[in-house]
Amino acid sequence: MSEAEPHVRVEKLVKIYGNRTVLHGVDLTINRAETLVIIGGSGAGKSTLVRHLIALERPTSGNIIIDGTDISSLSEVALARERRRFGMVFQKYALFDSMTCFDNVAFPLREQTKLSERDIREKAMQKLKELSVDHAANLTPAQISGGMAKRVGIARALVMEPELLIYDEPTSGLDPVTSRTVDDLIEEMREKFGVTSAVITHDMVSAFDIADQIAMLIKGRVVAQGTPAEVLDHADPSVQSFIRSSGVDASRFAQRRPRSPSEALAEKAIARKRARVADAK
Amino acid sequence: MADAPENPPQGLVASLVALTAPVREAVEEVGTVGDLALRAVVWALRPPYRLQLVVVQFEFVGVQSLFLVGLVGLFTGMVFAVQTVYGFRRFGAENMVGGVVALSLAREMAPVLTAIMVAARAGSGMAAELGNMRASEQIDALETMAVNPVQYLVVPRLLAGLVMVPVLTLVFFLVGLGGAWIIGIKVLSLDPGIFADRIRTLIQPADLMQGLVKSVVFGVAVTLIACRHGFYASGGAVGVGQATTRAVVWSVVGVFVLDYILTSLLTPVG
Ligand SMILES: Nc1ncnc2c1ncn2[C@@H]1O[C@H](COP(=O)(O)OP(=O)(O)OP(=O)(O)O)[C@@H](O)[C@H]1O
Ligand SMILES: [Mg+2]
Prior knowledge:
The structure holds two protein chains of two kinds. Chain A is α/β, with parallel strands linked by helices. Chain A folds into two domains: 8-85 and 163-280, P-loop containing nucleotide triphosphate hydrolases (Rossmann fold), CATH 3.40.50.300; 95-161, no CATH class. In chain A, 43% of the residues lie in helices and 21% in strands. The longest helix of chain A has 20 residues, at 261-280. Chain A is globular and about 55 Å long. Chain B is built from eight helices and no strands. The chains are: A alpha/beta, B mainly alpha. The interface between A and B is medium-sized, with 24 and 13 residues. Magnesium ion (MG) is lined by residues 46-47, 91, 168 of chain A.
């Protein structure tokens, strides 16, 4: 693993807006088929960082190398080609409000594939069902709740089954049960399709649950990157105080990891079944 | 008070700088609009061609402005007829009214007022819609789904401006003539035969050409300026509001400036 080139490599990324430095030389790597969880306080620059990964922002200086290509220097057209392999779940949903939820999810399929309208319908509905928002298919984003909009946004990002998925707070504003469903989906994408993910979250339970690696961003600097266990044991006092104040039960997570993918899936299947049984009652 | 003597030069410099701010802003405006125009042209030529989006914008710019433009055209024609009759009666030339109204409608009134109506109605709508899409990350979402936002959002609107503003201008012209006719014939009892004859003899193909050229340029300018302000809006709901205001203000200013330039280029005087 140490010899392999990481899927994503961020080198000395600096971003300055006007006279505000938002990112102060961030270094970060994400290995193929792994999930990197980015945690850190509000305004630390997490969204700004991930927006660079899909070239929605251009770095003031530094490089973003994905699959060996420095995407910060690509032309508009070359970038469009690269982007077919990325997906993003936006913090503010970013659903097209001129379309129904179904059309939102079908949108990338219509734009980027040559699938028949029938296949598109099937795929999009299937994803909406997986996120249990299929009943909202014919509603517009203005007619649904924030939590539902979030799930439609996730469905839209997942439907293309991209190689690199970026989630900006996928579980914020969702109830705990739905949050776990989303966590499961993130893991499932990785296990089934080998997707590489970057997940921003304030939800420390899901952070330690889904992460292969955790990066902690404080005021535009990565103060820690490592496995969940490494981050838990990190010596830096700011890391310690962040974790303590988030109320994560360190012993519990230290025990649970590592585990094999199949174990994890089996565990989840049982948990889901329990939830369904409980719902039915 | 003690340092009052030192202050005036500073104040003067400051206010001079402040005075040049709108000029600098205008130059920047031309730059960004020009840049957006270039990108729009490049992306318009590149497939895929999304006909359906173009149809939607044709509808929005053209069909939905039709009534408004017709209404303004009618009253403009009527007002112009009354004023011209009033003036021309003084030297017994009221029979020229039809021709003179037609001439000013074709060369000035129809293209300029139509463009301003489109800026107020469709332009503000475009700026608000695109501004909202920017604020809610929808434009970013398009980009991440490998859809070029200029191609997807700006090109259809630009095409709608390019085609529909000339069409609306023609409507304005015809309805305006109708208004002048009503006033001239029905109210002021001018001779219909002479009224129509003067229109025919006074109006040259060059006059219609000037109206057409102006309306095409205005149509492109108004939609581009509206798209530019919406597309690059920043700062949440407040930013969207500002973008909408600026879009309308700058497109109206742009129409008058372009009108002068085109008029002096297309009108042989002296
Ligand atoms: N386009 C911009 N122009 C100027 N400043 C910006 C811009 N985008 C972000 N910032 C600033 O950068 C800082 C980091 O913002 P960012 O959205 O990345 O934070 P975040 O870590 O995602 O926070 P949150 O957890 O609240 O979403 C903020 O202070 C913000 O004001
Ligand atoms: Mg954020």
